[in-house]
Specification:
Number of helices: 7
Shape: flat
CATH topology of one domain: 434 Repressor (Amino-terminal Domain)
Structural class: mainly alpha
Radius of gyration: 18 Å
CATH class of one domain: Mainly Alpha
Strand content: 5-15%
């Protein structure tokens, strides 16, 4: 399966279909909507919705727009893992997550994030070194 979404004749964009599918699933679950209900509203089969959510099938732009409208979200919320300027969406997601944090959880968050960043840099360095060998 190609990892590109056809925008219009001859214009394609690389898409992380695994991320897209998990974002569709998350938005659908937040709306307490079943795959069958989303499929019906989008005029797709339940199996196709399942395949899209599990990155086993691609979806065209028109149906993706339909799904975004049904789920009351923007396209960038669904494909932000595939676009370089998805930072705002990530900021919004993080802000929503931490709204119900306790003061103690909030105090720990900067240290957790610093550790994640450190681990990420170590992983990048290890991968680079392995590729050079």
């Amino acid at each position: 399966m190609s990892n590109y979404l056809l925008l219009q004749a001859g214009v394609t964009v690389a898409v992380d279909y695994r991320d897209l599918g998990s974002r569709i699933r998350a938005k659908r679950e937040i709306k307490r909507m079943s795959q069958a209900e989303l499929a019906s509203k989008a005029q797709l089969s339940t199996q196709h919705i399942s395949n899209v959510e599990n990155a086993k099938s691609k979806i065209g732009l028109e149906k993706l727009v339909d799904i975004a409208n049904i789920l009351d979200c923007s396209l960038d919320e669904l494909v932000c893992g595939s676009i370089k300027t998805g930072r705002t969406v990530y900021h919004n997601e993080i802000q929503e997550m931490i709204e119900d944090f306790t003061d103690a959880e909030l105090r720990m968050l900067p240290d957790i994030l610093k550790n994640i960043k450190y681990i990420y840099k170590l992983m990048e360095m290890t991968i680079r070194e392995e590729n050079e060998q």
